[in-house]
Amino acid sequence: MSRTTPRSYYYLFVTPNLYDYLEMPSDIRRGFNASVSAYQLTDIMWGFYKRIDRSKLSQWRNKDSFKKDLGKREPFYLTIQSVATAYKHLYTEGSYEVPSPGPARIIVPKEDTELESQQGDVIMRRRNGSEFSLTAALTAVVEKLWPDVLPTEDGS
Phi/psi at 125 (nearest 5 deg)? Predict the structure, then answer.
């Protein structure tokens, strides 16, 4: 039996969840699933290499410095962190507006509201009122950030 590595998790969960979301980018559930798996890779990579090969983590003092570095490399990482965290705190009245630890205030409209599918995408709103698409954030983190950060593994 082979073990789950950060790179295999990326290929088994993170990338497929992004592609599921991209098939239907107005689907909030798919957006949250993609965000949770993309953010969870942080803990998976840190925990795996802390046990298996600490040299792959030597450029960071601790997991917090790792997260800060990811946010500097790709500012949308903080957005994905916010979405993944907000997933646990949804409310059920009107649109779901969830405070988050990152720069974004998560606005998740209930079905049939005007924000649900602006240009076929889930729209996020920053605290300053500017809006951006979840598609842009997920694509930046999954297709640009993680491939640059994940260490190579035997056979990959």
Answer: -120, 125
CA dihedral 83, 87, 89, 91 (to 10 degrees): 100
Whether the predicted model's global pTM rises above the 0.85 cut = no
Who contacts 34 (Cβ-Cβ below 8 Å, separation ≥6)?
Answer: 14, 17, 18, 20, 21, 138, 142
Closest by CA to 118, choosing from 99, 135, 96, is: 135
The length of the chain, given as a count of residues: 156
Whole-angstrom Cα distance, residue 73 to residue 141? 10
73-92 residues labelled b (16+ CB within 10 A) or e (exposed) = ebebbbbbbbbbbbbeeeee
Poorest-pLDDT segment among 2-16, 17-31, 106-120 = 106-120
Over residues 130-147, the pLDDT tens digits come to 777 889 999 999 999 999
Determine contact, residues 78/71, Cβ cutoff 8 Å. Answer: yes
> Two tokens at 99?
């405070």
Task: Tell me the Ramachandran region of residue 5: left when phi exceeds 0, alpha when psi lies from -120 to 50, beta otherwise.
Answer: beta
Tokens in use for 116?
A: 């649900």
